[in-house]
Design goal:
Layout: H1 6-14, H2 18-53, E1 58-62, H3 71-78, H4 91-99, E2 104-112, E3 116-123, E4 128-132, E5 137-141, E6 147-148, E7 159-161, H5 179-191, H6 193-198, E8 199-208, E9 211-218, E10 221-227, H7 233-249, E11 255-259, E12 266-269
Parallel strand pairs: 1-3, 4-7, 7-8, 10-11
Antiparallel strand pairs: 2-3, 4-5, 5-6, 8-9, 9-10, 11-12
Length: about 270
Amino acid sequence: MSSLPIWELQKEYFEEPEKPRRNRAATLLKIIIMALLLFFTGEVVYYLFLSRSMLIEEVHVDAPEGFALTNTQIVSLSGFSGAESVFSVDTAVMEARIESYPSVLDAVVKEQFPNKLLIHVIPRTPVAVLLAGDRVKAFCVDQEGVLFRSPFPEEGLPILSGVKTADVKFGDRIHGSLTPMLNGLENLRTNRPVIYNLLSEIKIQRLADREYDGWLYFSHSRVKARTDLDFAVEQMEHIVLMIDLVEKQGIAPGVEELDFRSGNVVLKMREE
């Protein structure tokens, strides 16, 4: 009986044959090649057939009646060219382009299979009207302080005066320190529309760099109210109640203003 040296046994039982390794490598290479061929075949089929059959052929625009832009202008503003498919259209870029227009608060663009595009435009809501250029040019102002054209009638909106308006244009913003006041005005419009609709003018007086107070003028009384202009609902209810009381007492013709800034009501009488 012959015997093999120990190193020959190790070679015979522990070394992997070279041929199976090569077979596995060749099989893996074939799989990669097939995957690449399938991928490129899919790309060719898409660009030759599917992309053309799914070109966007219909664009539906949802915007309020009387909006500052027509539907055609909105589509043009979005950058839509007519060569986009539902796969290639970049809705985020289109939304950003539409929202760049001052009258637009938000825009939502969605693709709808197989060949439609939906554009929904949400306009800014005015809370006041800012008059500039010797009160000739009117800007609508929303709660963010953006100046814009509104699809809604400007009649009935309170006039915002006392604001620096030199060289202002649509799309500008009024000073950011006035934003809390505008937010309060929007809150009043939403939650107490009856009181909001009584406001005819808001005259702002600048006290310091970021501090203001002012006067409120009402459509139903000559008596004005001086306040810190935060438009808190409870305070506005109190102001209207006191003005109505002055009117009912018959002393309104002699009252110049009611001052609410200290927390107590101070009557300032008209000078003879």
